[in-house]
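During the reporting period the student researcher (J.K.) took over the structure-prediction task from the postdoctoral fellow and processed the backlog of single-chain submissions. One of the processed entries is reproduced below for the supervisory committee.
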Amino acid sequence: MERMLLFILVCMIGNITINAQDTLPYTLTSKYTLDGKKFGLYDSVRGKQILPIMYDGLADYYYKGVMVYWKADKMGLVDTSNHVITAALYDDITDFDNSVAFIKKGEKYALINTRGVLLTQFLYDNVSDFSCGLAKVEIHKTVNDLSWGGQKVNDNVGYINTKGIQVIPCKYNEGEDCQYGLVKVKTVVDKIKSYSVDYLGNKTPNYWPVSTDYIYNDKGVLVYTQKENEKTITITPTGKLVVYMSYSELVNGGFSRKFYDQYKLYDPVAKITIIPYSNNWIFEYSEKYPGNFIQFKVVTGGRMQYGCMDYNGKVILNPNFKNISNFDYNSYAKVSFFDDTFFYIDKSGKCVEFEGVVCPSE
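J.K. obtained the following structure tokens:
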């Protein structure tokens, strides 16, 4: 995370009010000295100098009374009582969140709190913001690349909580930010797909990357592992999983192949399948149904018909419709019949009268 906090630069004579996370009306003050331009903080309401004009730079925000300051090109932390929390030793200090921030020394990051206590060692090559109490961290490691015989740098992604505890180990190749209490990580392994044979009969393996997704909860417990033929796993806004599976089989005596696309709805907390895989129901998960619906479609008489259900598998609208739109109509969605008449529903799936359009009879 290369998010270097900016110096506050005074480009005119006088005071500049800073934008801070706290609401205290502090003002940046400055003066020129033999050692260059120096900065401090002044409380214009109480008429009191908060920080003396002695710092090479101050950040344009503070968090619970804690600010970033500069000495030359290094960064440290100071509070609004002018107590230096950490010396200016660091190359980067990220924004505070839940009273913790990442600090960078050289090429490595560590986690620190507002009291200046190091919660981890300087272990991480890259870090991210906290999401549902977890931050993605990376430890880079050089490994042999089987696909071309050279070397590559693996990210080794894991997650820590706001106490600095590693809740998901740094052993994955990829990882997403925690969302809805769940984290999706991925391993990628080069496996032999085929062989190339030269004119002397020498065989050279052709490698193909094979990935596997894993779902953890925000406590670091593995709750789902991607299985064979499962192509994607989507985390829904209620913490359920929509899993897409695709496979094929030979038919007609081996002369042709039939393809299958199936979806299931899974609850990783209860560890139950809500809706099993089926060729009859085709899920279309979409963020256009935020926190409420999954759209699905069925094929009836060669015609695609749409409906929607909640994340417990309860059908809200039976699949009788030509189309269900986004919630673009004053936060309502338009539900169309096949004769192009329509009605509107709210985000709970309840029909509402809108723009003179009445609800159909039940």
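The committee noted the following: The CA atoms of residues 295 and 308 lie 4 Å apart.
J.K. will present the remaining backlog at the next meeting.
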